[in-house]
Design brief:
The complex is a heterodimer of chains A (about 290) and B (about 130). Chain A is built from ten helices and two strands, in the order αααααααββααα. Chain A is an all-alpha fold and about 290 residues long. The two termini of chain A are about 50 Å apart. With about 130 residues, chain B is mainly α. Chain B has one domain. Chain B is globular. Classes of the chains: A mainly alpha (about 290), B mainly alpha (about 130).
Chain lengths: ~290, ~130
Amino acid sequence: MKVRTLTSALVLGVALAATAPADATAAEGWSPAASEKLIKLPGSYMEKAIENDYRKSALAAKLTETDEKVSFKKQSLADLQAAVAGTDGELRRNLEHQFLTEKKNYIELMREQTELRRARAETKVRLYERLLGKMNAKKAVVSKGQAELLNNQEAARARFKSTLANVDSTLLQPTYAAESKYAQEYANNLAAIERLSASINAHPMNQAPEVMGEPMTRDEYLRHLIAQNESEIALVDQERAVLGYMAKLVSLDALALSQDYEPDETFAAADDDEQRLTSAVDFFITN
Amino acid sequence: MKTILKTTAAALAFAVVAASPVFAGTLENMERERAIMLETLLSGNMTPAERQSKSAIARVRLIDLERMVLRDESLTGKNTPHVRAAFENYDLTFLIHASAENNRAPLDHWLTQLGVSTQSVMGARPGLR
């Protein structure tokens, strides 16, 4: 009777675990901000900075802890499974019951883990969307007058650049004027800036992010990261469905175990006689 | 005592504000220098040698100032009437560079841009406006 009560409790427990609501506190463990500093970082470095921020969060600590628990639980499941196979009689029944309890615990742990992974992926998607929105907003704030001014400034600088050598040869003739201190210092500084700029461009941390060998713009890379995390969310949802099936199997195993203890032969015989709806399915299928 | 402290603090604040330098932008500096140069070139109160010497100094300063304005990133997209007007006419704003580009003296280039030529001056008739 005691075993039957325990088994019933197990069935109820598994059913509750499978339908438990999402962990509301999971998302609170990591709340990164879409800061200006983050927007200015090169694409690949931005992802690394976000990952570093995540690693320091309570959410990451909780997920690591849950992963460790899952790993231990899997090991104890394997041990119990081996033990069940090597025994019989009352001891086997006790071990089978323990095995079911461990399976139920494993499902609960996995449910917790999928919730945490979902929270991580959703937080990342929200963050990348905010970053993308801010980047696009910056580009969009150009009025008609400002656009005209930018065009004029670009044209003025282009004209200055294209005529510089010619103008220099005219203006800096000895009869006209010698090169000023500003011009000399500017040339020196420009040479230094060009060397530094070349180093910056060649720096591994400043390389444009690549996906499958193709360089991407920051916008494209952010959209790629959003898609990656959306697929993680979809996979987590699928894993939850798998967990639901696992929970169902554990419930059925628990029921079977309780039936083994007190078999109701009358009920079983009546059950055999009952007409099942599925046996009539063939009548409704025409081909 | 409290009033004295308040007065001292106010005086100190005023002194700090009064002592802080007010920097004109590159554009303002360039335009001031250009105005002075044009005034020198058009002035009838100095000898040709004096005009030549003063305008040569102003031209050297203007070469640098014009380049500073063209390279000033803080002016990029700064949508103020002053900046807009400056970049609307390269030839008038960057007078020294534009005149050198066209192999003209700055004053000639300036007058040409304003539509004043030797022909138009010679063809003009004195009269009331």
